Amino acid sequence: MAAVDIDVPVETEPQICNQEDLERPLSRNKSGNPFKTLAESFKEQGNAYYSKKDYSQAFNYYTKAIDACPKNASYYGNRAATLMMLCRFREALEDSQQAVRLDDCFMKGHLREGKCHLSLGNAMAANRCFQKVLELEPSNREAQQEKKNAAALLEYQRMADFGFEKRDFRKVVFCMDRALALASACHRFKILKAECLALLGRYPEAQSVASDILRMDSTNADALYVRGLCLYYEDCIDKAVQFFVQALRMAPDHEKARLACRNAKALKAKKEEGNQAFKNNNYEAAYQLYTEALAIDPNNIKTNAKLYCNRATAGAKLKKVDQAIEDCTSAIKLDDTYIKAYLRRAQCPHASPR
Predict the structure, then answer these.
(1) Which SUPFAM superfamilies does UniProt cross-reference here (predicted)?
(2) Has residue 164 got a pLDDT over 80?
(3) CA 342, CA 345: separation in Å to the nearest integer?
């Protein structure tokens, strides 16, 4: 990330804090000018560490400056800049907002607030901040460019929402990749991308995105949901249910996790009922139960491939040869690595080579 501008103090106009905010009284040097306040001293040390790219130490000294003089907007502004370099955008947003509360004409404060909103995926809030900067400084090129970035982010969101509605998951992944280039800290965009990767069968990529989020926030319900979704689509239904339950524990109103959990349990139960009916030589019941299971979730490719194959076996027992061949073919279309479906189709009487 490019370095964020900080506010360097002007020595001829030192910041004067309330006396009770100071840890030591002011004194004068030989030239008769007052020494900088303790808070300004801390700020200058923070600036020095910032210029050396030692952002952790810069953060510590800006915090000391704030503790010594909590009514100075530039101290919060500089700490916000440091937090941005540390990719701690939510904390940086809070400091930027405090800076502009203290000084509504603090242009850099509004600019930083907008950048934080943008990094977190809040394009409309970011746009308002950049507009405020342009009201204060109409020729500010950085604000002009960031305003364009906020508009682009809104457009990517719109396209992604439309793509998801149309089940064009590749389009959503494309849009989210572009959006994340502008909003790198937006968990919402990462989760949507991961969910679509899972729906596209790109489970390792989806798992990787969800795991990255969980490393930072182990209670993130959306990431837990995506982890469960990947396991569910890989036919690890029991483990998937555990993640869905955990997601619902963190966020009881998480509708996607609730639906996925219900589907996972229903799919497992219906499949097991069909298997039991088949073992009991009740092929008609098994055929019907597999049919009902196939209607539960069309997105679960691996489980549905097995269900088609199982129904083909039941159909062969019922002398439904054509349907059995079709079911084996459907299983192969869903999972072209499913060897059992090829073998079962070859074993069907009168099956022509395919």
Answers:
(1) TPR-like
(2) yes
(3) 5
